[in-house]
């Protein structure tokens, strides 16, 4: 999918505007997540009872059902765990499981990348796409690692 890179904030945060993306359903449980995303922060959950990280963040740990969870800001870097390329009327879209450096996997989209340049294990970093009134985390290939 061709998207427009709209701006960079700081050294590491990218915002992408694509008015075609639908807004996710808002509810009290995900409000903090989307509020953080609008500020360029990707949150995941960590449980104090079992010490495991999880995504998406929620009020109850999905591993041990403890309510002793906290929301933690991720560094925004990870790699492609798996992906698929969808071809439709709107063009090519890439749906992917991203494994963050913090060890959690999340389903997201990879934008602004040709399918031929994707591979499992490729480094990615978070960007924030506009979906309706909120921003949602998506990923772009992290070419800064190759240049380093
Ligand atoms: Zn737990």
UniProtKB/TrEMBL annotation:
Q: Highest taxon of the source?
A: Bacteria
Query: One short Pfam family name for this protein?
Result: zf-ChsH2
Is the keyword DNA-binding assigned to this protein?
yes
Stored Gene3D superfamilies: 6.10.30.10
Where do the ChsH2 C-terminal OB-fold domain residues begin and end?
Answer: 71-128
| Domain ChsH2 rubredoxin-like zinc ribbon as annotated: residue spans | 35-70
One GO term in the molecular function aspect is:
DNA binding
InterPro entries membership = ChsH2_C, ChsH2_Znr, NA-bd_OB-fold, Thioester_dehydratase-like
**The keyword DNA-binding appears for this protein:** yes
- Write the record's keywords in alphabetical order, separated by commas: DNA-binding
Q: What is this protein called?
A: DNA-binding protein
> Whose protein is this, by species?
Achromobacter aloeverae
Species lineage = Bacteria, Pseudomonadati, Pseudomonadota, Betaproteobacteria, Burkholderiales
């Amino acid at each position: 999918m061709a998207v427009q890179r709209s701006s960079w904030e700081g050294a590491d945060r990218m915002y992408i505007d694509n008015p075609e993306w639908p807004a996710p359903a808002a509810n009290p449980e995900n409000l903090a997540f989307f509020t953080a995303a609008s500020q360029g922060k990707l949150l995941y959950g960590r449980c104090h009872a079992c010490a495991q990280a999880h995504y998406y963040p929620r009020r109850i740990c999905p591993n041990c059902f403890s309510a002793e969870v906290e929301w933690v800001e991720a560094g925004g870097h990870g790699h492609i765990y798996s992906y698929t390329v969808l071809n439709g009327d709107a063009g090519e879209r890439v749906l992917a499981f991203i494994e963050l450096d913090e060890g959690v996997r999340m389903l997201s989209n990879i934008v602004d990348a040709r399918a031929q340049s994707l591979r499992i294990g490729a480094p990615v970093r978070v960007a924030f796409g506009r979906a309706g009134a909120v921003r949602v985390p998506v990923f772009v290939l992290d070419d800064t690692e190759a240049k380093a």
